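Sequence in, structure out.
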Amino acid sequence: QVQVMESGGGLVQPGGSLRLSCAASGSIFSINAMSWYRQAAGKQRTLVARIRDTGAISYEDSVKGRFTISRDYTKTLTYLQMNSLKPEDTAVYYCSARTHDQDYWGQGTQVTVSS
């Protein structure tokens, strides 16, 4: 079993920055990838960024060059640094831990980009 919890959301003006954090606990050793997803009102949840245990990183096209996913050396914390935020980045952001047979989800944290 793995538990994940997000933090760091909030209200930011266009062009601003936020850093989201995801704390994982439980069977950390079983995690082979950590991901950030987002879900805007009335839309489907989509993948924003993923970091694998191999070190491979991938991003959704609209956030490339603006968002950075990283993980600390203990692999208990995963971050999403979000720069040059746009109103269309407004969404609930979810952290997900992937093991060989299951995805574990946090409750989400709201990010609102508005002037």
